[in-house]
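Session log. Operator J.P. requested a structure for one protein chain; no other inputs attached. Running the standard single-chain path with token output.
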Amino acid sequence: MTTKHPHKTALVLIDVENAFGTLAQRSVAVTRLAALLEHVPAQAQVVAACPPARIRPDVKQALADQGVKVLSAGIGPNAADKVLLNRARQAAANGVTHFTVVSADAAFATLAALGELHVLAWDRQPVGKTLAKAATVHRISRHHSAPASASAQPAAIPRVPRPAPQRFAPAPASPPPSAPDSPPIPRWSTAAFGVGALFCGGLAFGTGTALGSRLVHLALDAATRPRP
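Structure written below.
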């Protein structure tokens, strides 16, 4: 038995670059998508369009996990707008009458002729006058924070106490080098000095005595020698 899905009469069109930014991070895209989906009909079909080179693979997968069908667009001007407008016309031919556009481009103003048109725009995001006149504009805060599951939150990293810095006492100053010792001055004892004095005196006395005796002998020889 084949299950017949209920017919969806609402369509949400998301210009990825306009809604999330070019090459947006996964966390940014998921958070903003959650804020957008709070303002769309519960049974709406959600499609998005973006050039493949301007969306990260993990962002594309995250959108698919939320039931968003991502359509590939070319790289020409307004390529994503053209893809989304074609999908809107196909949906209108199948009975869709409620359109919600996540884009500020004026080209989507033409969808007002196909049914009820709503525009989701961020706070202070410029919206063209033509589009703002043709649709009902809803402003959404960019700082919406989607609740994260406990499993998605990173585990807290335990903080390891840092050891207190050690203070080392300064090394004691080494004493200045001592002056080299002077060679010892010989000290003569009193006895040695006396012996030396006596020796010198005796030597002088003996020399004088010998010299005097020699002079006496020479004088006697001269006196006794006969004269010629």
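Operator note: Helices lie at 16-19, 26-37, 57-65, 79-93, 129-134, 190-224.
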